[in-house]
Design brief:
15-stranded mixed sheet; 28 strands; 30% helix; alpha+beta; binds zinc ion
C-alpha cells in the first residue's frame, strides 16, 4: 500500500436552524475544537515568512507526541462554507484539509469533508482510527449538543453538563455575593443566572463575559444586565477588564484590570499595525470570574477560524492572476475589502436596490471596482491582478453592537459611584468619538440666598443636587463634577440628556418653592478627550467648552442646545413628541469665539 494514499471522509448532519444560526456554532472553530476534545494550541515563532497572509505555525501535544504544523489562512464565505489546509512538519500526518458547507434544507444540511494524507505507516494506521472513528463520534456528539440547545445565537453560554468544583472558600464568597446583590434588591432569578454561568459555563465564555451577550441570551434588559455585572464585580464575584481592540481584526491585543493601566497606543501583532484607541469603539468592557472564585486558564484551540473575526464575511486567498466568483448574502450597511499586502482598501455599500454583480480587482496597490453599491445577495468576483498572492478580506465596517464600550460604561452614574477610583493614568488622553455634555447652573443664586436666607437656601440648593443626580442617573447619564451650584454631566445618548433636564426642571417646579429655584442648562454633543483631573475621569475639548458657554445663555427653566444636538435624529424625534408642551426657537445670543454657531432654546410653553 502506498503511504501517499489519501483518506477522505464525508460526514453529513442536519440541523433544525437556518445556516446563519448554525454558522455561529460550527464556524466557531475555537470552541468547536475544544468541545471535540482537541488539545490547546501553542503559537510558534513569529517569522515574517511564515505569517505572510495570516499563515500561522502552531503546535499541540497529543498522546505524548508533539505535532507541529503550518496553517494556511482559513477561507470562508459566511454563512455557507469554510475550509482550511494544515501542513504538518512532524507527526504521522503530512497534510489535512477540511471543507465545511452549509446549505438551507428544512434548517441546515451540513457536509463536513476531511481529507488526510499520511506521512508514514503510523499515519496510515492512525488516521482511520483517530479520525475515521474517534473524531467522527466526537463531532456527532458536538453537533447533537448544538441541535439540542434552542435559540442558539452568537454564543450559547453553557456547553457542558459539568459543574465546576469550588473550594469551600469560593462557595462562601459566592454566598456573600448573593447576599450583597439581594440587598441591592436585584431579582433573585437574575442573580442565580449569573451565578449559574460562573459555575457551569466553559472557560472560553467565562474569559470574556459580555453583558450584552448575556442579556440577549437571557432575554433580559441590556442595561440591567450591565448593572448586575458591575454590582457583582463590587461584590467580588466578577472582575472587570478593559480590553483594547484592534480596528482591523477586532481582537483584544491588551486586557487590563484597571483603566489606569490603559495606554492609548497599542500594537496588533497579527495585523502588524500600531493604533490609537478611542473610548467609543476600541475599548470594550468585559467581565470574568474573580480568580479567588474561579481561575480561568484561557487556552486557545484554534486561532484562525471565521468566528474569531465575525465581522469578516468572506476571506479568500488568491494566487497571482487568479479570479474567483462568490455568491454572497449580506446585510445592508458599509463594507470594506482589504488585503494585508495592499496599502489601500476599497469601500462599498450594501443596499436592497444595489447591483446584483460586482467585480473587485486588486492591482499594484490600488483597487478597481465595477460598482460601489451592491445588493444583499450579490455575485461578487474577486480578481488578483498583482504579481503576488493576496488574501482578500471582505468585512463589515460597523462595530459589533454586542460590545459594551468604555464610553458607555464611564458615562453611567452607577459606574462612577461604584468605581470612583477608576481613572486614566495621569497625562494619558483618550479620544471619545461622540459624547453629550450637559452643564447646569442655578439662576440668580446670590439673590436666592439673600431672599430665602442662607440656611434654608443652602438646604434647597443641596436638594436640587439630589434632584439632578436622580434625573441624570435615571436617564443613563453621570455627573462628572460640581463647581459651586453648577453641574457637569455626560450622556451616551443625546436625547436622554434633554429628557433628564426636562425631568429635573419639572421636579424643581413641582416643589413650589418661594422663591422658586430656576435651573439653567446647556447641552452639546460631539467628540472630546477623556483625561484624569483631580483623580477622577473627566473630559475636555471644545465640545465641553461650548456646552459650558451655552449654560451662560440659558435664562432658567429653558435648555439651550447646539445645532449638533438639534440635528441628532433621536433628539429631533423627542422634540417632535414634546411639541405640544415645548417650543423650540433659534437663540440670538452671540457666543464669543463661537459666533458662527447656531444655538436653540427649548422651553416649556406658558399655559
Ligand atoms: Zn489586529
Amino acid at each position: 500500500m502506498n503511504s501517499r494514499k489519501e483518506f477522505h471522509y464525508v460526514w453529513e448532519y442536519d440541523f433544525h436552524h437556518p445556516p446563519e444560526q448554525v454558522w455561529s456554532f460550527v464556524a466557531d472553530t475555537n470552541r468547536f475544537n475544544m468541545l471535540v476534545g482537541l488539545p490547546a494550541v501553542e503559537f510558534l515563532a513569529d517569522e515574517d515568512e511564515i505569517n505572510l497572509n495570516n499563515r500561522r505555525r502552531l503546535r499541540f501535544t497529543r498522546l505524548g507526541q508533539q505535532i507541529e504544523w503550518e496553517e494556511e489562512p482559513f477561507e470562508w464565505v459566511r454563512p455557507s462554507r469554510y475550509g482550511v489546509v494544515r501542513r504538518y512538519l512532524r507527526g504521522p500526518v503530512a497534510e489535512m484539509r477540511v471543507q465545511v458547507t452549509l446549505t438551507p434544507r428544512d434548517g441546515t444540511h451540513l457536509v463536513y469533508e476531511l481529507t488526510a494524507r499520511p506521512r508514514n505507516l503510523l499515519g496510515r494506521l492512525a488516521i482511520p482510527a483517530q479520525i475515521g472513528v474517534i473524531s467522527k463520534r466526537q463531532f456527532k456528539r458536538a453537533f447533537e449538543l448544538y441541535n439540542r440547545s434552542q435559540n442558539y445565537e452568537e454564543s450559547s453560554l453553557v456547553h457542558t453538563q459539568e459543574i465546576f468544583n469550588f473550594t469551600p472558600e469560593a462557595e462562601a464568597r459566592i454566598e456573600r455575593t448573593r447576599g450583597e446583590l439581594t440587598a441591592r434588591k436585584i431579582d433573585a432569578k437574575f442573580i442565580e443566572r449569573l451565578i449559574e454561568t460562573v459555575k457551569r459555563a466553559d472557560e472560553i465564555t467565562l474569559a470574556r463575559l459580555r453583558p450584552r451577550v448575556l442579556a440577549d441570551e437571557w432575554q433580559t434588559d441590556r442595561r440591567a444586565t450591565l448593572e448586575l455585572c458591575l454590582y457583582a464585580t463590587r461584590a467580588g464575584l466578577l472582575e472587570l477588564r478593559w480590553e483594547l481592540l484592534c480596528p482591523l481584526c477586532r481582537g483584544a491585543n491588551e486586557s487590563h484590570e484597571t483603566l489606569g493601566e490603559v495606554n492609548s497606543q497599542v500594537h496588533c501583532d497579527s495585523c502588524r499595525i500600531d493604533y490609537t484607541i478611542d473610548f467609543d469603539r476600541s475599548v470594550e468592557i468585559t467581565f470574568r470570574p474573580n480568580p479567588a472564585i474561579r481561575k480561568i486558564e484561557l487556552q486557545q484551540f484554534c486561532t484562525g477560524g471565521p468566528e474569531v473575526t465575525p465581522h469578516i464575511i468572506a476571506q479568500q486567498l488568491l494566487r497571482a492572476g487568479e479570479r474567483r466568483t462568490l455568491n454572497m448574502q449580506l446585510e445592508t450597511g458599509s463594507y470594506r475589502i482589504r488585503s494585508p499586502q495592499m496599502a489601500a482598501d476599497t469601500f462599498l455599500t450594501i443596499e436592497e436596490s444595489g447591483t446584483k454583480e460586482a467585480t473587485f480587482a486588486a492591482e499594484d496597490n490600488r483597487w478597481t471596482t465595477s460598482e460601489s453599491v451592491i445588493s444583499t445577495s450579490p455575485i461578487v468576483t474577486l480578481i488578483n491582478e498583482t504579481a503576488s498572492e493576496q488574501l482578500f478580506i471582505f468585512e463589515r465596517t460597523r462595530w459589533s453592537d454586542r460590545a459594551t464600550t468604555a464610553s458607555e460604561v464611564t458615562s453611567l452614574q452607577i459606574f462612577r459611584d461604584l468605581f470612583s477610583r477608576e481613572a486614566l493614568r495621569p497625562g494619558e488622553q483618550i479620544r471619545v468619538g461622540q459624547i453629550t455634555i450637559l452643564f447646569t447652573d442655578l439662576r440668580d443664586s446670590t439673590r436666592y440666598y439673600r431672599e430665602a436666607g442662607d440656611a434654608p437656601a443652602f438646604g434647597k440648593v443641596m436638594t436640587h443636587f439630589d434632584v439632578l443626580r436622580a434625573c441624570i442617573a435615571e436617564h443613563d447619564g453621570a455627573i462628572i463634577k460640581t463647581i459651586g451650584d453648577a453641574v457637569m454631566a455626560v450622556f451616551q445618548n443625546p436625547a436622554q440628556s434633554l429628557s433628564a433636564v426636562i425631568a429635573a426642571q419639572e421636579r424643581l417646579a413641582a416643589a413650589r418653592e418661594a422663591p422658586p429655584l430656576k435651573l439653567k442648562a446647556g447641552i452639546h454633543t460631539g467628540a472630546c478627550i477623556a483625561v484624569t483631573l483631580n483623580d477622577r475621569l473627566d473630559y475636555f475639548g471644545s465640545t465641553v467648552n461650548f456646552a459650558a458657554r451655552l449654560v451662560g445663555v440659558s435664562e432658567g427653566d429653558d435648555i439651550i442646545i447646539s445645532e449638533a444636538m438639534k440635528d441628532d435624529p433621536a433628539v429631533a424625534a423627542l422634540i417632535e413628541t414634546l411639541d405640544e408642551k415645548f417650543s423650540i426657537a433659534p437663540c440670538r445670543a452671540a457666543l464669543k469665539g463661537f459666533e458662527q454657531c447656531e444655538i436653540w432654546s427649548v422651553k416649556r410653553k406658558v399655559e
